[in-house]
Amino acid sequence: MAFKRLLASLGAGGASxxxxxxxxxxxxxxxxxxxxxxxxxxxxxxxxxxxxxxxxKVEVESGDEEYKQNIEFTKVRLGGAFELQAGAVHAVPFGLxxxxxxxxxxxxxxxxxxxxxGVTTELEIARAVDSGDLDPIHVHPLPAQKAIxxxxxxxxxxxxxxxxxxxxxxxxxxxxxxYQEIEFYPPSQYHGLNQVELSFVADEHAMDVVLEMDKKxxxxxxxxxxxxxxxxxxxxxxxxxxxxxLNQWLSEVGSRRNWF
Length: 260
Hints:
Elements: H1 2-9, E1 16-21, E2 25-26, E3 31-39, E4 45-62, E5 65-77, E6 82-84, E7 89-97, E8 106-107, E9 110-111, E10 117-125, E11 128-131, E12 135-136, E13 138-139, H2 143-154, E14 158-166, E15 178-185, E16 193-202, E17 206-215, E18 227-233, H3 242-256
Parallel strand pairs: 2-13
Antiparallel strand pairs: 1-3, 3-7, 4-5, 4-6, 4-10, 8-9, 10-11, 10-12, 14-15, 15-16, 16-17, 17-18
């Protein structure tokens, strides 16, 4: 029996963990629900802790280097310690709140390339940790976010790419250690543009919308008039024609710089 316990502590014949999500489609500020199923191994084991969280794969720039890093940006402990009987199945339901700043991974039912967000599970067993696979979730935009995205599509912009970058956008309500950038190719009438970058930073009341125009041939600094940040209420955004608003800004900047 002692040998079996040693093997179990090393992961051979020990408990295993699996997470099943009730619904993979969520929105910022919502809740992802699921169940963690712990399968007992060949011997009884002392379970010291069980946690679930949300993890994102984020780009990190360090000097001249750029690499990907997994960042867990929320974590919840489920219950306390208990003894798992050999061969037994222990099911633990959970509800995990989605932070309001969580990047969107879907637009109009289409997955955004470059987005990797999911639920992580960790089972603590006798000074060891058994981590389950990342269970992806699909984060759909809030209605206010969708209104801005729809405005870009209405103007003829095409989705280019999306990424998550470690860092902070100044003068926003950002709390997470990373932010999302959604990049669009411009339509032909904005022929002087290379792309437009869009970021949302939301809380339960409103969101900061951050836009930056990238002229062909180089990026502009935040201090120039090619950068714009404005606030949109999550519940009072309907009264603005966002396509007209965006077109006016783009046209004003473009005409001043003789782009268009």
